[in-house]
Amino acid sequence: MKQSLKLVLPSKKYLKEWIAFQKETLAALPIDNPDRAGYEKHIVSSLKPRYFKWLRDDRLGINLEKGMVQQTIWWGMVGTKIVGRISFRHKLTKTLREHGGNIGYAVRPKFQGKGYATEMLRLVLKKVAKLGYKKVLLTCDDSNTASWKTIEKNKGILDRKEVIDGTLSRFYWIKL
Question: Measured between alpha carbons, how far is 156 from 122 in angstroms, rounded to an integer?
Answer without folding.
Answer: 11
